[in-house]
Structures are given as C-alpha cells and as structure tokens.
Amino acid sequence: NSLLVNEIDIQGLLVFLTESLGGLNSISIGLLHNNPIIRYHTLQILLKCNDYQSTKYSLDNFNVYVQLSYERQLKLYENGMLLDEIKRYQEKINESTNDLLSYDEDTILNSYIQPTLNILFDDDTNDTIDNSLDISTDSITPINPIDFIP
Predict the structure, then answer these.
(1) Coiled-coil ranges per the record (predicted)?
(2) In a domain? residue 133
(3) Can you tell me the distance from the alpha carbon of 2 to that of 9, in angstroms, rounded to the nearest whole number?
(4) CB 66 within 8 A of CB 44
(5) What digits encode the pLDDT tens for the residues 121-139?
(6) How does DSSP assign 24-91, residue by residue?
(7) How far is 68 from 147, CA to CA, in rounded Å?
C-alpha cells in the first residue's frame, strides 16, 4: 500500500492485473476478509485507484457483490467504524497474546499436554500404543525414478 504513491504506481499495478487475469477482483476479495486490517488496506488500494481518472475505470468491472462490499467498507471507513473495529481487533489480539505469555510451564503442561496424554494413554484400561508391529527398513524396495518416465 505504501508503494502505491502516485498515478504511475497505480497504472503499474494495473498492468500486472489485466482484465483477462481478473483485474482488481483478486485484490478486492480482501473486502470480504474477516480481519479488519486486511479490509482496511484493500479499501486503501481501491481508493487510490479511484483517485485518478486513468485508473478509475478499473473499479467499474466489479460484480454486484464486490461493489456492495466496496460501498459498505467505504461507509464504515468514512464513519470511523472500520478504524474502531481495527482497534478492537488489535486489543483482542494483545489480550490473547498476554494471556498466553502469562502462563508458566506447569500451567501449560497441566492444562493442555496432560489431558491429551490421558486421552492417548487411558490409565483406566491400560491401553497403550501397539508396539508389536515390527517395521524394518530391510523390506523396503528402492524406487527408480526412471521407471515413472513415460
């Protein structure tokens, strides 16, 4: 997004995203993403395309669904609601990161690893992994890659 500074940069982007390859549809799908940061940056790219007369045409080829998504994200951005959603998202990420960092090694072992081990090796029935299968490398036949060439 920071590389798209002027009209020539936007035109350069559109050279790589020709209409025959889907045009801006490959970028506009970001408007539908669950992450508000991705939606924000997608909107910024599309707004830059809308800023210049020579690149404005590229927004005309969206299907109705993408066009409605674009208009919705634009309204959320203009109302400040998209930026609020980004702040809430970042706070949520920070909280979950802090929660993970606050656990010590014993808590992680007792909360996550031990229950998994109890399921794998149920102490009530004395079930364990069956080690009776003898797997040796002697019975493996090497494969010749030339055999697969037609």
Answers:
(1) 79-106
(2) no
(3) 10
(4) no
(5) 555 555 454 555 555 555 5
(6) THHHHGGGG-S-HHHHHHHHHHHHHHHHSTTTGGGGTT--HHHHHHHHHHHHHHHTTHHHHHHHHHHH
(7) 55
- Please indicate, yes or no, if residue 69 is contained in any of the structural domains: yes
| In-domain check, residue 138 | no
CB 69 within 8 A of CB 32: yes
- Rounded to the nearest 5 degrees, what angle is found at the Cα of 102, between the Cα atoms of 38 and 84? 30
Taking CA atoms, 70 is separated from 35, 42, 65, in Å, by: 15, 9, 9
pTM of the model as a whole: 0.62
Q: What proportions of the chain, in percent to the nearest 5, are helix, strand and coil?
A: 65, 0, 35
